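Possible regression after last week's pipeline update?

I re-ran a chain I had predicted before the update to compare outputs. Posting the input and the new output here so someone can diff against the archived version. Not blocking, just want to make sure nothing changed silently.
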Amino acid sequence: MDKKIIVAAIVAILVIAGIGIYAITSDSKEKDSSYTLLAVANSEGSGLYIKENIFNERGGASAFYTDEGNGIYTVDESNKAAWGGLIFGTPGTTSIQHVQLRTIAEEYLGLNYTLYQENTQKNSQTVYYVPSVSNATAALSGGYPLDGGILWQPQYQAIVDSTTGGFTELALTNNLFPGHTCCVVAGSTSFIGANTEVTERFLAAYVKGALWVQSALADTGSDDYARLVEISKSKTSGLSEEVIKESLSTITYLYGNQGQDDPLTSLRTDIAALADSLQLEHTVEDLGFADSKAFADRFVNSTYLKAALEGVDKLDSAVTVKVAVITGDLHQIALHVAVENGYFNELGINVETSGATNGAGVAVALQNGTVVFGLLGAPPATSTIINGELIKA
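New output (post-update):
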C-alpha cells in the first residue's frame, strides 16, 4: 500500500479515537523549533536578599537605595559603595532576575557585572554573580560564597525567613522595577498554527485560573484563598504556610492588559525593550527585522488570547497537551489552579505538566517539541529566540 495512504489512515484512526491533534503534531518532523508568546503569567514577585551582617556594616537600607515612598526605591551612583565588591547568586544568566541585577549594577550604579570564580580577585568597582543559585536550598547550603542573591517567589521568601544562612531582605523587585513583566505563556509556533481551537481553549482555561487567583488573593479570609494556599503548598514542597502566604502577597497574577482591546500591548513594549537591552549573540536586525518593535510585533501574538476572551465552547474530542513549568515557582500557580479546578477539562483539554529548573529549561523543552506550551521568564524566552535565530522577518 502507498505510504501516504497508510499515514492518512493512521491519522484518521487517531482522530476518530479521540486521541487528539496534539498526538499528531507534537511529533511532526516538519515543524520548526520556534515558539510564540501568547499571554502574560505574572508581573513582579522576586526579591534581593543579603547577608544581614553585610547589610548592617554597609549602612542599612539607605546605603543601598533611596526610598521614594509608595513602595518605590531608586538606586544610583551614590549607592556604589554599598553594592561594590559583593557576590550575588542568580538563577541563571538568561533569567529576568539576572537581567535585573545586571541593570542595577551597570545602568544604575555604573559598576561592572562579572562572573565570580574561585580565584577571582574582587574589587569595589564590580558586582559579582554566581549564575546557578535557583532555589532556597542552594542559597542556604553554604556551598557558594554568597553575600546575597536575587530569586523568585517562594524561594526568595524561604531564604529571608530562614533561621539559617544569615540572610535578610534587601528589596523586592516590585520596589525597584514596579510593574515589570516577569513570566509569560508561550506556545510552539507550529503547534498553535495547526491547532487554533486547542490554543484558544488552553488560554481560556488559563485566564479563568488567573482570574480565580486574583479573586482569592483579594479576600484572604475566603475558602478560595485557603484552597489557593493549599495548592501552592502542594507545588512547592517543604515550605511553610507562612512562607507561601507572604510569597503570594508579592506577586501580581495577570494574563495581559485586562479590559483593553489588545491585551498584550504592554508585553510587546517590554519584549522590545528586552531585545534592545539583553546581551545577545545576535540582534533583531540579524533576523531581518527593522527594529525591536517589529520583532516584538512578530514574537507576541494576541490573536488567540482575544478569541479566548470572547468565549469558547468545549472541544468535540478530548486533547492532551504537555506544558513545561518552572519547578517550585509560584509565579505560575494560575496554571496549576486551572488544572486543579478542572478548567482545562471543562473545555476538553487534559494538561500534563513537566518541570524545569529555570526558564532556559522551559525554552529548551519548547524547542525540542517535548511540550507544546510553556511558562517561563520573558528574558529567557526572548534571548533563546534571538540567539537561536528561531524566527525571521
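Follow-up from reviewer: compared with the archived run. The radius of gyration is 22 Å. Marking as no regression found.
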